[in-house]
C-alpha cells in the first residue's frame, strides 16, 4: 500500500513530467482553486486533471461520495482518462464538494 507521502510524490512527479509549474496544486489535497490558481492552470487544465485523478476514471467513486446534482459538472475533476475539458465558471461550486473529489482521486493511488 502506498503511503500518503508516496501518493503526494506520484502526483507531484506527474505534474513535473507534464511541465506543470503550479506546485501548490500538485499535492493532496491540492490548494483551493481561486483566481491565481485558475490563471496558472488555464493552459495545463487537462494535464493537471489527468495527474490529479491518477489517469483513472474515478467518477463512480465521486458519484457515490455525493458529487451529483448541482455538483455534476465537478465529476470532470474525477476523470483522468484523456480529459478534454475547458476551464469555465461551470466549476464554481466544485470547492464545496472538494473533499469527496480529493478522497476518490487520492485513494485511486492506493494499491
What features would you describe in this structure?
- This protein has 111 residues and is mostly helical.
- It has one domain.
- The protein is built from 5 helices and no strands.
- Helix 1 runs antiparallel to helix 3.
- The relative contact order is 0.19.
- The mean pLDDT is 90.
- It holds the Pfam family DB.
- InterPro entries: DB.
Q: Would you report the number of β strands?
A: 0
Which series of helices and strands comes N to C? HHHHH
> How many individual helices?
5
- Percent in helix: 40-55%
**Overall outline:** globular
Structural class computed from helices and strand pairing: mainly alpha
Q: How many structural domains are formed by the residues?
A: 1
Q: Compute the average pLDDT.
A: 90
* Beta-strand proportion: under 5%
Low-confidence stretches: none
Protein name: Domain of unknown function DB domain-containing protein
InterPro entries: DB
Domain Domain of unknown function DB: 14-104
SSE blueprint and pairings:
Layout: H1 4-18, H2 35-41, H3 45-52, H4 59-64, H5 98-107
Helix pairs in contact: 1-3
Amino acid at each position: 500500500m502506498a503511503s500518503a507521502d508516496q501518493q503526494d510524490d506520484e502526483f507531484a512527479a506527474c505534474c513535473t513530467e507534464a511541465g506543470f509549474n503550479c506546485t501548490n496544486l500538485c499535492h493532496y489535497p491540492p490548494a483551493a482553486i481561486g483566481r491565481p490558481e485558475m490563471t496558472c492552470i488555464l493552459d495545463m487544465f487537462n494535464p493537471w486533471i489527468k495527474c490529479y485523478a491518477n489517469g483513472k476514471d474515478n467518477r463512480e467513486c465521486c458519484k457515490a461520495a455525493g458529487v451529483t446534482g448541482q455538483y455534476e459538472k465537478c465529476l470532470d475533476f474525477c476523470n483522468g482518462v484523456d480529459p478534454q475539458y475547458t476551464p469555465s465558471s461551470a466549476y464554481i461550486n466544485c470547492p464545496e464538494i472538494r473533499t469527496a473529489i480529493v478522497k476518490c482521486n487520492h485513494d485511486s493511488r492506493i494499491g
